[in-house]
Amino acid sequence: MNTDFHRIKRLPPYVFEEVNRLKAKARAAGDDIIDFGMGNPDMPTPKHIIEKLVETVQDPRMNRYSASRGIPGLRKAMAAYYGRRFGVKVDPDKEVIATLGSKEGFANLAQAITAPGDTILVPNPAYPIHAFGFILAGAAIRHVEASSPEQFLRNLERAVRHAVPPPTAVVVSYPSNPTAQVVDLEFYADVVKFAKAKGLWVLSDLAYAEIYFGDKAPPSMLQVPGAKDIVVEFNSLSKTYAMPGWRMGFAAGNERLIHALGRIKSYLDYGAFTPIQVAATAALNGPQDCVDEMRAIYKGRRDALVDSFTRAGWAVPSPEASMFAWVPVPEAFRALGSLTFSKLLLEHAKIAVAPGIGFGEYGDGHVRIALVENEQRIRQAARNIRKFISAGPAIAEARVARDAAQ
Predict the structure, then answer these.
(1) Backbone angles phi, psi at 24, to 5 degrees
(2) What is the band of 3 on the pLDDT scale with cuts at 50, 70, 90?
(3) pTM score, two decimals?
(4) pLDDT > 70: percent of the chain
(5) SS3 assignment for 255-307
(6) Which ranges of 87-121 does DSSP label H, i.e. alpha helix?
(7) pLDDT tens across 301-334, in order?
(8) Looking at the predicted structure, is the pLDDT value of residue 173 above 90?
(9) CA Rg, the chain, in Å?
(10) Across all residues in the chain, what is the average pLDDT?
């Protein structure tokens, strides 16, 4: 029997699994691993959100199937967030849909709008689901190098010109995971203008809209006049309210795209557990000082990371937003690539990071560091880094010799 299923064959080996396997092995051996690998918020969910969940879950009527598109109160709260935060009016009945996290929503919309053989433009490096959601749907991916937002814009024209068949959609993601880059409204206006001229749908990932460290909050692409003609935007409560395991996100924007996503979801799920949706409504409608507090914690961690790692000999560019730092592999290790460097960092410094190659070929010169350890642990990691960097040439040479001998 042939066990090589077609869609599974289209997926490459999961790069992060190699680091995760080594991390688990080290912990089993008793090593204290400082884990910056996964963007998994470690802060507690705000008390008022948990209290609303507890209150609601005790109602026996809440145990029944929920609404796939999201309960009306939640969709209204999501629409109100867009009005309050961005000054954008969206119809909660036609232009908003609740999802089981933004990742699920993204993948399901890819299924809804993609025919086998369609070409999709995806930034590289990028969060894996941006490409693999479409790959699983049978699309061909045209990777657009996005080392900077300006480079991404320049490369879009070339990508469209050389794509066969012509692309049907483009993915945009700012604040970016993994690069932590941000853009302004003028950038979004350029994307919308380009996409309309080329007949493209735009899928915008705005999951990190509320984690920023300057005075200016990241904008929404839906603020661009006429953007709703072609744009759908994904957001998430996971990072904003420290609710990653609750799996609650949403999409807003173009009515046709929202309807298509709703059709797919109606066959696949009954929506999140109703008490979770009620608690998510409380999060969006309730006091937002908890968001300010978490943002301040992330900023403190960012500053501690940039300061202590740079002093230790590994220069860390200061991210303007998101819960990540996108950091060049040190010169002594650069020729080894990000995956081998990440393995050596885990082996010799007891620090886990995400290798940049896991986000696409253009990410291989970097690693992603998630701000999910407290400041004390960050400074502890910096002490380990100092020793690791000082021994860097010897470690790199030993690794090269070992690989050559195998």
Answers:
(1) -65, -40
(2) low
(3) 0.92
(4) 97
(5) HHHHHHHHHHHHHHCCCCCHHHHHHHHHHHHCCCHHHHHHHHHHHHHHHHHHH
(6) 101-113
(7) 999 999 999 999 999 999 999 999 999 999 989 9
(8) yes
(9) 22
(10) 93
Rounded CA-CA distance 352/370 in Å is: 10
Q: What count of residues does the chain have? A: 406
Structure tokens at 64: 């029944």
Q: In the predicted model, what is the mean pLDDT of residues 349-371?
A: 95
Q: Is residue 320 classed exposed, middle or buried when 0-12, 13-18 and 19+ CB atoms within 10 A define those classes?
A: middle
Q: Between 289-311 and 375-390, two packed helices, what is the crossing angle to 10 degrees?
A: 20
Q: Which of 143, 110, 144, 153 is nearest to 129 (CA)?
A: 110
Burial class (CB in 10 A: 0-12, 13-18, 19+), 28: exposed
Which residues of 76-217 form beta strands (DSSP E)? Answer: 96-99, 119-124, 140-145, 169-173, 201-205
Kind plus residue range of the DSSP H or E element containing 326: strand 324-328
End-to-end CA distance of the chain: 34
Q: Which helix (H) or strand (E) holds 233?
A: strand 231-236
- The rounded distance, in Å, linking the Cα atoms of 51 and 357 is 41
Q: Which domains, ranges and CATH numbers included, belong to the chain?
A: 6-44+290-405 (3.90.1150.10), 47-285 (3.40.640.10)
Question: Is residue 348 within 8 Å of 381, Cβ to Cβ?
Answer: no
